[in-house]
Specification:
The protein has 63 residues and is an all-alpha fold. The chain has one domain. The chain is 78% helix and 0% strand. The protein is built from three helices and no strands. α1 packs antiparallel against α2.
Length: 63
């Protein structure tokens, strides 16, 4: 599960970088692509946050 979330997070960041630097899209297409990639990044970041190890495990050094 966490692997998939990391994969989605990475894909979202790469898509966002592509949209903002190389795509050449303007107007509604640029806004739509930015929103989709932003939702992808934020959603996967929240999923990673919710699936992290409990604080007691992190304090002991277990991952």
């Amino acid at each position: 599960m966490r692997f998939l979330l990391w994969l989605l997070f990475t894909a979202g960041v790469l898509v966002n970088a592509f949209v903002n630097t190389l795509s050449g899209w303007t107007g509604a297409a640029h806004v739509a692509a930015s929103v989709v990639s932003g939702v992808l990044v934020l959603g996967s970041a929240v999923g990673l946050w919710l699936t992290r190890a409990p604080a007691a495990d992190r304090a002991r050094g277990a991952v």
